[in-house]
Amino acid sequence: MSVDSIHSHANWARDLGGVSFPLLADFEPKGEVARAYGLYLDGPGITDRATVWIDASGVVRHASSAGPGGERDVAELAALAERLDGEYDGPSQPFAPSPGAAGAKLYVKDACGFSRAVRVAVDNLHLQGLETCNVTQDAQALAELKERTGAETAPVLVLGDEVLPESAAIIARLADQVRPVE
Asked: pTM higher than 0.90, yes or no?
């Protein structure tokens, strides 16, 4: 969690090769969640460098602060995560794409910031089975896109009869596809 935007989080996660945990952008209203945990620093307007582990039951298992500008010992945190994971015996809810994502088709373009944002979201959401067509490299995909939408504009997400042509709407819809496995 940080007061950075979802776009900043997406780029950070992509630079790490993807992350398997959710990121919270405490962007607007700025720092509201961090304030609830006592981790918002009003002066500089940022969150404290803190680590909070919340288990699948919603119980806070660990909280520590490195202080403003402080460094955390990554090896120590990894060992703590392993220990807490081994101790946890409560219910868990693994996340996976819902069946609603099946049959979806995503049209993207090279050198398009909006298409890149959607591809980053797909990576970070760990969506599998989403057919992605690059209309810059695939003339047939471009023809399909034109036939479906009447335009060459990408990104576009097609889910059955639903056509979403805006990156923010596409990302929101894709994020909605990720559900706890029942």
From this structure: no
